[in-house]
């Protein structure tokens, strides 16, 4: 890799650390500032932070790789994601922003679940926190795998060393600046990702004489859109579109809604966020499609389809621009890892340590414990990522399904079902998570295959959790008058703020 590319990357690394230092000086004096940025985050930062932390390395590597291998089958995943993100902004964001304040200023998702039922019982909060830490460790390892592959493919650096470099930078600014650092870096990283995913497919396409030449070359390896429709099954379509269900339960995304400065700012965030997402996801799909066409037309060897963006970056651009595009991949990876580490640390400190501790803990000490939590989750994820044979998309899909099934139905029920009970909430979380884990790992089919080879695990997990929430609530005693009063107060406050 030419020296110019290393200069671009060095500038990017310094900028991320500088943002972390700025955020450290601005917002980490108390736990609310460290976890939620004092609930004063702008709609612009909220939108790009949510998008960047959502899309991660799989946007620039996993999704183009899927398009490269399967063709238009990957489009249905994208459609499901766009629809799910929009529904999240409409159904969850406004009410969650208000409800988390009404429920005694809840700072984390598990804390909101507990305070939503006006019950200091540790069971619901701790179970939620354990699931968050478990699935986020898996999710974070997916980001590290992407980082390791990037350094191995682009810089001929040992895969494991690439893991350490990726983790070292992201942990540094997350430890320093907390939520504000994560959000501000996500904003910058989202801008970089946007430019990269517009630039790469356009420049790659310019190598062809016409659209028909490109499509003919691509169809040598992948089926055309009409052929894809002919072979599409209902189960396959449902599995792909089902990715959208995951949005309602992703703690690192919905926590952005809790931190935005006002309900009225959510509309602006939605418009920015959905525009950003639509353009970038089309760019990711286009990169994969142009990539397979380019490989066929010009006999370009691509050993790992998930590295097609890297291949284009090195092949088609000046070294300075190539370094910028490498930074875009790192931006995607780091934005998600930092968000996941922070939410995991928040759950470890606020939802496990504080709940189990028998003594009062100062905010300053809690912030420091949170920083140790960031380091602990990072180390666990690093150990999982050591196996370079892991694919980014498979790791992300498993964690996405786990959160979507465990928390997605519960978030919606908490916001829209007044008589929801705590027992139902606990049963819904456990049933959703267990169903997903069984679907992924139980070798119940021929040749030891799991049920996830038939239908994406989020579908049965979401359905089981939803049914459990409804049934247990139906056969439980109604919640207390105070719980129902908080629900009514939230609706009234939301209406007042929106008027």
TrEMBL record:
<feature type="transmembrane region" description="Helical">
    <location>
        <begin position="126"/>
        <end position="147"/>
    </location>
</feature>
<dbReference type="GO" id="GO:0015193">
    <property type="term" value="F:L-proline transmembrane transporter activity"/>
</dbReference>
<keyword id="KW-0812">Transmembrane</keyword>
<feature type="transmembrane region" description="Helical">
    <location>
        <begin position="315"/>
        <end position="348"/>
    </location>
</feature>
<keyword id="KW-0029">Amino-acid transport</keyword>
<comment type="similarity">
    <text>Belongs to the sodium:solute symporter (SSF) (TC 2.A.21) family.</text>
</comment>
<feature type="transmembrane region" description="Helical">
    <location>
        <begin position="187"/>
        <end position="206"/>
    </location>
</feature>
<dbReference type="InterPro" id="IPR011851">
    <property type="entry name" value="Na/Pro_symporter"/>
</dbReference>
<feature type="transmembrane region" description="Helical">
    <location>
        <begin position="423"/>
        <end position="442"/>
    </location>
</feature>
<dbReference type="GO" id="GO:0005886">
    <property type="term" value="C:plasma membrane"/>
</dbReference>
<comment type="function">
    <text>Catalyzes the sodium-dependent uptake of extracellular L-proline.</text>
</comment>
<keyword id="KW-0997">Cell inner membrane</keyword>
<keyword id="KW-0769">Symport</keyword>
<dbReference type="InterPro" id="IPR018212">
    <property type="entry name" value="Na/solute_symporter_CS"/>
</dbReference>
<keyword id="KW-0406">Ion transport</keyword>
<dbReference type="InterPro" id="IPR038377">
    <property type="entry name" value="Na/Glc_symporter_sf"/>
</dbReference>
<keyword id="KW-1133">Transmembrane helix</keyword>
<feature type="transmembrane region" description="Helical">
    <location>
        <begin position="159"/>
        <end position="180"/>
    </location>
</feature>
<protein>
    <recommendedName>
        <fullName>Sodium/proline symporter</fullName>
    </recommendedName>
</protein>
<dbReference type="InterPro" id="IPR050277">
    <property type="entry name" value="Sodium:Solute_Symporter"/>
</dbReference>
<feature type="transmembrane region" description="Helical">
    <location>
        <begin position="454"/>
        <end position="472"/>
    </location>
</feature>
<feature type="transmembrane region" description="Helical">
    <location>
        <begin position="369"/>
        <end position="386"/>
    </location>
</feature>
<dbReference type="GO" id="GO:0031402">
    <property type="term" value="F:sodium ion binding"/>
</dbReference>
<keyword id="KW-0813">Transport</keyword>
<dbReference type="InterPro" id="IPR001734">
    <property type="entry name" value="Na/solute_symporter"/>
</dbReference>
<dbReference type="GO" id="GO:0005298">
    <property type="term" value="F:proline:sodium symporter activity"/>
</dbReference>
<keyword id="KW-1003">Cell membrane</keyword>
<keyword id="KW-0915">Sodium</keyword>
<keyword id="KW-0472">Membrane</keyword>
<keyword id="KW-0739">Sodium transport</keyword>
<dbReference type="GO" id="GO:0015824">
    <property type="term" value="P:proline transport"/>
</dbReference>
<feature type="transmembrane region" description="Helical">
    <location>
        <begin position="276"/>
        <end position="295"/>
    </location>
</feature>
<dbReference type="Pfam" id="PF00474">
    <property type="entry name" value="SSF"/>
</dbReference>
<feature type="transmembrane region" description="Helical">
    <location>
        <begin position="74"/>
        <end position="92"/>
    </location>
</feature>
<feature type="transmembrane region" description="Helical">
    <location>
        <begin position="232"/>
        <end position="255"/>
    </location>
</feature>
<feature type="transmembrane region" description="Helical">
    <location>
        <begin position="6"/>
        <end position="24"/>
    </location>
</feature>
<feature type="transmembrane region" description="Helical">
    <location>
        <begin position="392"/>
        <end position="416"/>
    </location>
</feature>
């Amino acid at each position: 890799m030419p020296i110019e590319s290393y200069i671009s990357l060095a500038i990017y690394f310094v900028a991320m650390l500088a943002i972390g230092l700025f955020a450290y000086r601005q917002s980490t004096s108390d736990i609310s500032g460290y976890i939620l940025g004092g609930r004063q985050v702008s709609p612009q930062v909220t939108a790009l932070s949510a998008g960047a932390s959502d899309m991660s390395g799989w946007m620039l590597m996993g999704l183009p790789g899927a398009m490269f291998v399967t063709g238009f089958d990957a489009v249905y995943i994208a459609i499901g994601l766009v629809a799910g993100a929009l529904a999240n902004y409409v159904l969850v964001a406004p009410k969650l922003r208000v409800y988390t304040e009404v429920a005694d200023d809840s700072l984390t998702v598990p804390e909101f679940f507990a305070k939503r039922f006006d019950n200091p019982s540790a069971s619901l909060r701790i179970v939620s926190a354990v699931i968050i830490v478990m699935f986020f460790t898996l999710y974070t390892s997916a980001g590290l795998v992407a980082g390791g592959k990037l350094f191995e493919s682009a810089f001929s650096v040992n895969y494991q060393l690439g893991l350490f470099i990726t983790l070292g930078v992201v942990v540094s600014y997350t430890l320093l600046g907390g939520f504000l650092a994560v959000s501000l870096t996500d904003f910058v990283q989202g801008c970089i990702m946007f430019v990269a995913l517009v630039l790469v497919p356009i420049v790659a396409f310019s190598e062809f004489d016409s659209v028909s030449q490109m499509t003919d070359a691509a169809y040598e390896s992948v089926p055309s859109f009409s052929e894809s429709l002919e072979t599409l099954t209902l189960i396959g379509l449902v599995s792909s579109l089902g990715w959208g269900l995951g949005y309602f339960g992703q703690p690192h995304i919905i926590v952005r809604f809790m931190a935005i400065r006002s309900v009225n700012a959510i509309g602006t965030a939605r418009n920015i966020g959905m525009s950003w997402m639509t353009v970038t996801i089309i760019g990711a799909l286009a990169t994969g499609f142009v990539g397979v066409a380019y490989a066929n037309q010009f006999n370009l060897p691509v050993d790992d389809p998930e590295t097609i963006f890297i291949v284009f970056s090195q092949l088609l651009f000046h070294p300075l621009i190539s370094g910028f595009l490498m930074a875009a991949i790192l931006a995607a990876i780091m934005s998600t890892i930092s968000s996941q580490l922070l939410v995991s640390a928040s759950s470890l400190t606020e939802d496990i340590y504080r709940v189990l501790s028998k003594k009062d803990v100062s905010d300053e000490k809690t912030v420091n414990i949170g920083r140790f939590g960031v380091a602990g989750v990072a180390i666990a994820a690093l150990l999982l990522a050591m196996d370079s044979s892991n694919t980014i998309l498979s790791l992300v899909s498993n964690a996405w399904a786990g959160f979507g099934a465990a928390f997605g139905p519960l978030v919606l029920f908490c916001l829209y079902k007044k008589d929801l009970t705590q027992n139902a909430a606990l049963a819904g979380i456990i049933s959703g998570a267990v169903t997903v884990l069984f679907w992924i790992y139980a070798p119940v089919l021929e040749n030891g295959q799991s049920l996830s080879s038939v239908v994406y695990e989020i579908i049965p997990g979401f359905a089981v959790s939803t049914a459990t929430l409804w049934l247990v609530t139906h056969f439980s005693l109604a919640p207390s008058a105070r719980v129902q009063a908080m629900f009514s107060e939230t609706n009234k406050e939301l209406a007042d703020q929106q008027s």
